[in-house]
Amino acid sequence: MPLADGSMIPGMFTAVVTNPVDIVKVRQQLQTQGPGSVWSVTSRMLRTEGFMSLMKGTSASILREGTYSTIRLGTYEMFKDLLKKNTQGIFDSEGLPLKVTSSIIAGTLGSAIANPTDLVKIRMQAYYPSGSPYRSMRHAFASIYHETLPGSVGPPRSSLINGMQSMYRGVIPTVARGWAVAACQMPAYDHTKQWLKRRDLLREGVYAHLAASSFAGLVVSLASNPVDVVKVRIMNDTTSQYRGIWHCVMSIMRYEGPTAFYKGFGMCWARLGTHTIVTYMIYEQLRLLAGVKPL
Hints:
globular, 11 helices
């Protein structure tokens, strides 16, 4: 079971620790005029919204990590075992293809299920000149569920189907980001740690966990930032600015240039790097305490 190895706890803990970094990253990625430095975005938030603005969306971030990370981390080894057992030796048990494939399956499942929580988190973290329209996470969920989809006409849709469509806005780039994270983070950590151990550079333990998770954090940040920019733009698009994913990509390319896909990279790396290190350091220790073998 996903919860048996403590996979929920690291993600939820890191959600709180990294929320200030995450909200600055989201604000940078939503800016369409100029890059917006970390200092300018942070100082503007502190000046106009106060210190606690850095913790906006924390509840949704905790819920998102409690869902996404629990599924992604908790099912990774299950899928590794299933693939190894049912593919008649196609996958080497220590090979990178098995790790990448298992991680992508687990990441796809987790990111798809957690999309509504990711959507609410981004909406709660975005900047609103007239003040946030959301009083709480619960109010944000209800408001998004009942809002009119971009491009539609008529009164707000409140049926189950249209409500779910609203909650799953941006699910394709969310899953695409999940693929990028899944294809890099867990395999990079797992493979790097095994590489260090095989060459007797480090033994299983805290130093190996720290080294492997630090490298994995850099790799996953480089891979996921472009998709994250598109995901954030689409999820926060309530005025039909973008007709779809491809239109969003081409608009960014045309009006802001290719470097725009790396807006917020410093904060992305700070967040994902910290997130990766804290998650795997805690995760490995919880596995040890539970009597489960290391990754």
